[in-house]
Amino acid sequence: MENFSLLLNLACGAELPDEANGRARRLQLVAAALLAALAFAALWGLAAGGRSVQLSLANVYKVPMVVLLSAVCAVPAGMLTWKLCGAAGRGTDMLVSFATSVFGATLILAALAPVVALYDHSSAWAGPLLTVASALLALAVGTLVFVRSVLRRGKRAILLVPAAVFVLIQLATLLQLIALASPIVPERTIFSHGIDPTVSEVER
Amino acid sequence: MSRRALVSAAWLVACFSASTTAAAGAPPPSAARAALHVGTVVGEDLQWRSTIVLPPDGDGAPLRLRLAAPLPPGETLDAAPGVHAVFERDGIVAVDFAAAPEGVAVLRFTQPNARRAARAHLGAPLVEGDAIQIVDVAGDGGARFEPAAELGLDRTVTELVQPGISLGDRGAAIAELDYHAPLGAVPLVLRADAALVARGGIDGTLTTFAERRRGAAAGISVAFIAAIIALWALQRRLGRAAHEEEAERALAAEYDALSRDVRR
């Protein structure tokens, strides 16, 4: 619970308190944020499955998998960019910012899960729209939380470069992982088959 | 006969045999200049649309366009005025035109149950001869064709090319066909050479996106479970380290306070 309130404060833009500013504590926060994100993502997955019980249960595995692996895949490229940029500061601060943003984004998903579940069960057109909209909102909020956190801690604009790499790599991984895990929602979306049809659709 | 004459005779025989072997492997001149065969997977079937570029000076005389290999049994030519399929042992081996088309001929074929077999044999109507032909397979569910390794096609970023087809020849054929590969497509660029004719055409595997991702799913599951275990272990281990850090910080603060008191 202590970790949860600390992560929530960080997601809201607060600074790390002095007593939690040790290296081990920061890394522990990263692990705690990602583990909590798994639970929040599973909750949203359960709701997004719509009327299909089988799909909802499968989503308890699929959505956390997509969230965690996309986040993990973004870390090496993001941290390498951070190092190459030569920005002052600690690498663990960057990691805390990133994990906090994943935590914040999945928290939005979890908060919206009851509404998503309700609309999925009661409306044929609003349900799917709300499901996709909630996911896009979570992505947008997660990105904003990350950028704000990075700028507040590092206080240098150069840190936006690794932040952009983190976000882009995560989005790129997310797109293909969603395709591999599809179906997540009962309806077919433009993300269901990965990058190829998505780009064709955009080109059209 | 001198020794030198014998060596010369042997060299001549070797040259002749090499040239006849090469002639046997190389396809004969084609009636077509280039061809594009686009296969679309519709359910279990493959629907082919072949665009064949012919010499522009078609004289209107009847024309028989021979295929490099018989099409699979059951494949049919869609009805078109003045165009007839020539069958041999249940397979189409040629197409007859009542009058030679000028410039471009477009033919449509239907290959039934192409997806049922584990090993797909493409019923692309490859034209006999040395014309460069492009074969592209697409369709619902992200269908993709992977040619058999024995065909020996070289994989480039955008195409699978038969060895011996130069970049210039390939470019000329693509320009002649006005072909724009759809995004994500990896077309086959080849000539109906002796090896291809001997194989009876193009074979390989035809898969959908869902079939391809099954293999990746197992690996991803393992990575996911490993990541969770690692995070859990890290969380517990770092918990202890964090307590130690906290204790050290408290100890340092106490020590500083004590030092200040002593100085006073």
Structure report:
The complex is a heterodimer of chains A (204) and B (264). Chain A has 204 residues and is mostly helical. Chain A has one domain. Helix content of chain A is 79%, strand content 0%. The longest helix of chain A is centred in the middle third of the chain and has 33 residues, at 53-85. The mean pLDDT of chain A is 88. Chain B is α+β, with helices and mostly antiparallel strands. Chain B has 4 helices and 14 strands. In chain B, the strands form 3 sheets. Chain B has an 8-stranded mixed β-sheet. In chain B, 28% of the residues are buried. The model of chain B is unreliable at 11-24 (pLDDT under 50). The chains are: A mainly alpha (204), B alpha+beta (264).
**Integer count of domains of chain A:** 1
Say how many strands of chain A there are.
0
Helix content of chain A: over 70%
Q: What percentage of the residues of chain A does DSSP assign to strands (E)?
A: under 5%
Work out the radius of gyration of chain B.
32 Å
How much of the polypeptide of chain B forms β-strand, as a percent range? 25-35%
Q: Which segments of chain B are poorly predicted (pLDDT under 50) over 5 or more consecutive residues?
A: 11-24
Measured distance between first and last alpha carbons of chain A? 49 Å
| H and E order of chain B | HEEEEEEEEEEEEHEHEH
Overall shape of chain B = elongated
What structural class do helix, strand and pairing data of chain B support?
Answer: alpha+beta
Cα-atom radius of gyration of chain A = 17 Å
The largest β sheet of chain A comes out as: none
Report the principal-axis shape of chain A: globular
Regarding quaternary structure, what we see is heterodimer
> How is the largest sheet of chain B built, in terms of strand order?
4-7-2-1-9-13-12-11
Low-confidence stretches of chain A: none
Run of helices and strands of chain A:
HHHHHHH
Largest interface: A-B, 28 and 26 residues
* Strands of chain B, total number: 14
Average pLDDT of chain B, rounded to a whole number, is: 83
